[in-house]
Write a structure and sequence with these properties.
Rossmann fold, 2 domains, 13 helices
């Protein structure tokens, strides 16, 4: 696909699709991680005296209707503070001030306020594509969605390319997926095997070891023949879990943290063989073998916590995992909202080689799927 460096962007008008779907409270951005991820592309454009129109979604408004609670005005204020310039909010694609405003940075109001975004309508895609000179796609977190701003606009553009963030994402994820140095260890946590089955299957073909956590681990523990009491698991996934276990790559815990309630009543650390019928597994302890495997690895892929870490009583497993990965010399790649929250809670983000901005996009890429936005960019080359 074309990269931003392939074009002369000096004094050009750039429409840049970003992912600034950030949490907002009382009209203020409370976590600007996704905004910060877009800064390198914006900075490069500003250095080249380019004019910028940012395009992003925010939340899930009813398409075609303005919802003031999901306006990008707070995002515009945040960007204005970062770059110390005014940032105009554009409400219509017919606005004659686009690329002719008071600032070199403008932002289009929430793209999901516009008819045709979710349906990938060519009418909206063409409007977005033809506003500027180059359509820059830099929103990896939305690249798995075939929508007007993530697909049709790329296809219909005169010229399109990947932004710096997208380049960085693809490079890091490809390194873990296709060029991983062995030993390769994957840590896959979360509630359900079914939501990450394709990821587990694909990684099972590539990784040397897989550490499972959360409800996913419970399903594998049950498939191994242990009683798990009231623990969350998927009965429909037991046969598949048993098949995967036959590959001898899955690493199961030896000790788990149990409780009779999610709130934390009668908390105990127990061996797998000692779980009672009125207990549920809400956390797990890293085994010595797991720690050794992580420390000796060359590549680590991490997606999902080991337990219900939001509750401090069940956070030890995920905290220990975070600190162990932070201390490894291997290339470590982390992705998914809960995973990034755990990293921010327990360690310095810089101690992980790369933290992906994608959630669903991260999972689909690591499942081996070609994402619609990336396919569209390749088709334009």
């Amino acid at each position: 696909m074309h990269k931003l460096s392939d074009f002369n962007i000096e004094n050009k008008n750039l429409t840049i699709r970003v992912d600034m779907n950030v949490p907002i409270k009382d009209g203020m951005v409370v976590d600007q991680t996704r905004i910060n991820a877009c800064i390198p592309t914006i900075e490069l454009a500003l250095k080249k005296n380019a004019n910028i129109l940012l395009v992003s979604h925010l939340g899930r408004p009813e398409e075609g209707k303005h919802d003031s609670s999901l306006s990008l005005i707070p995002v515009a204020k945040c960007i204005s503070e970062i770059f110390q310039v005014p940032v105009d909010v554009i409400n219509s694609l017919d606005d004659i001030s686009i690329f002719n405003g008071s600032s070199s940075i403008q932002i289009l109001e929430n793209i999901r306020f516009f008819d045709g975004e979710m349906g990938n309508k060519d009418s909206l895609g063409k409007s977005l594509a033809n506003i500027g000179d180059i359509y820059v796609f830099d929103a990896f977190g939305t690249s798995h969605r075939e929508q007007a701003s993530t697909h049709s606009a790329i296809i219909n553009s005169k010229a399109s390319c990947a932004g710096l963030l997208l380049e960085k994402e693809i490079s890091a994820l490809t390194k873990a997926l296709k060029n991983a140095e062995s030993p390769f260890v994957a840590v896959i946590g979360g509630a359900k095997v079914s939501t990450k089955l394709e990821l587990i299957k694909n990684i099972n073909l590539k990784a040397d070891s897989i550490i499972v956590g959360g409800g996913i681990a419970n399903t594998f523990i049950r498939a191994s023949g242990y009683e798990i009491g009231k623990s969350l698991y998927e009965e429909s996934m037991l046969d598949i879990a048993s098949e995967i276990l036959e590959g001898n790559k899955i690493m199961l815990p030896e000790k788990v943290i149990t409780s009779s309630t999610f709130e934390g009543e009668n908390i105990q650390e127990k061996m797998l063989s000692d779980i009672c019928e009125d207990e549920m597994i809400l956390d797990q302890s890293l085994t010595a073998a797991m720690k050794e495997t992580l420390i000796n690895s060359k590549t680590i892929l991490w997606n999902g916590p080991l337990g219900v870490f939001e509750n401090e009583s069940f956070s030890k497993g995920t905290k220990d995992l975070s600190k162990t990965i932070a201390g490894c010399d291997s290339f470590s790649l982390a992705g998914g909202g809960e995973t990034l929250t755990a990293i921010n809670n327990f360690i310095n983000k810089d101690d992980v080689s790369y933290c992906s901005t994608g959630g669903g996009a991260f999972l689909e890429f690591m499942e081996g799927k070609e994402l619609p936005s990336i396919a569209a960019l390749k088709a334009k080359n």
